[in-house]
Amino acid sequence: MRTELAKQPVDATTTSAWADLSRLSGDLEPDLRGWFESDPARAERFAFQAADLYVDLSKNLLTDDVLAALVDLAGQTGVAERRDAMFSGEHINPTEDRAVLHTALRRPAGTAPALHVDGQDVDADVRAELAKVYGFAEKVRSGEWTGVTGEKVRTIVNIGIGGSDLGPVMAYEALEPYVAEGLECRFVSNIDPTDVAQKTADLDPATTLFIVASKTFGTLETLTNARLARDWLWRSLVAAGAIEDTDEGRAGAVAKHFVAVSTALDKVAAFGIDTENAFGFWDWVGGRYSMDSAIGTSLAIAIGPERFEELLSGFHAMDEHFRTAPLERNVPVLMGLLNVWYTNFRDAHTHAVLPYAQQLHRFPAYLQQLTMESNGKSVRWDGSPVTADTGEVFWGEPGTNGQHAFYQLIHQGTRLIPADFIAVAQPAYGLTDPVGDGKAVAPGADVHGLFLANFFAQTKALAFGRTADEVRAEGTPEELVSARVFSGNRPTTSILAPALTPSVLGQLVALYEHITFVQGVVWGIDSFDQWGVELGKKLALEIAPAVAGDEAALAAQDASTAALIARYRTLRP
Questions:
Q1: Tell me: the pLDDT tens digits for 468-485?
Q2: Based on the number of CB atoms within 10 Å of its own CB, is 291 exposed (0-12), middle (13-18) or buried (19 or more)?
Q3: Domains contained in the chain, number
Q4: What is the pLDDT of residues 442-453, one digit of tens each?
Q5: For position 143, which CATH number holds?
Q6: Residues with active-site annotation
């Protein structure tokens, strides 16, 4: 299904919209105070609803002319056309000649017309695999699935890395209030042996289930950790007298305590896992877009199939908004275009994501892979060099922790750092302060309300700042006035949801998936390959013998690498 669409990126820098944006940026003197004062409707005009998310763009460095030019840029670079090609299953990942169909993972059962791609009934394939995952999840949750001693599983350890780890662990932490009582998930990803050692140190092997998540069942880190976990299981069960220290005993333990998410069934079987307990997905699902596939098996067990379906429905709701809303009111389109505006016209290099919801504490880390692995490219999808800067460094921490760490730089530093603030109205744990502080916090105060007062205050302070005259009016000594001035005009987007439900989490993830897509289209890059991660992995395999003591391999290294390896070997003889 290769098409001309997949072969011919538009050079955004040659469009009339790009020229308009360059001119507008050159003339722009940001004045959020003045803009709000002269335009009482600004907050309403630049606020949008996408599924359950209320998204306020009004505190961005955005005017009607800039917005119009950005929408024109989307039109002139073919954002809508490429979006439609993605949803229909065209091969918009040209370097791997693949369709890009993570959106198919969350299509409701019975959606018409059915989606057929490359001769496959995608809807039927997805639903069949989901049914298999759900059936297994119910067995674990009910206690029908047991370990070798007949005891119910109490801990699931997901072993993966990258997309096979970041999505599931983020979602598990976010949806912790929905986790079944008596179940716990842990996640092992780092090849540093400390990770697997710490995650298994206090576990009961008889009640532990490992999920090895690797599409190819060949990822170095994942398979190394899986072998370490298997060895821990064998040793612990033998020590407890639960199994005999024989090949048969060990094989039986793996069959009851390990399952896989992989399509490489031969390798799964060679590891000792029953292939009936292997859950698959497809080459049209990139790892960083896979948390709503079988990669989410640990989550499906933890929160149950019904809640997992709610997660999928949230993804789909945002998909439908992205697919159908006009560009000028399409939230993922507008947020993606704003990122292009800041990156290419306002000299921003980073982007902060600041969730005012402790359960989303892993969300910025999740977005780092989604955004930077997708759009950290220097060539376009036809192999030609990019014609503009691409990508931003995404980072962040939950509020209010970040306020006491790095907000100083955002407020008063010399760099422009656009920031997304995310909050929910209904907390998972609604607590009140019984005593208060005798000042701002009254006895019985709603702590979540106090928390969100910070959410509202930070975006206000970043937008409007504080002038020298306002600082003087507070009685500040003149010699300290300049230090206490806040320039304002620091752009933020505010995202407010009713509560952090499975559906809302799905909406948030899909929102950023589509934001990333929009930026990739404008820049003409393939957001769905990741060749940049391959070279380091290849070199690690070549260097490993030198680290282990192979003198010929050591001699083959450059001087710096050889010296570092030699020093390591002296420190760890």
A1: 999 999 999 999 999 999
A2: buried
A3: 3
A4: 888 999 999 999
A5: 3.40.50.10490
A6: 373, 404, 537
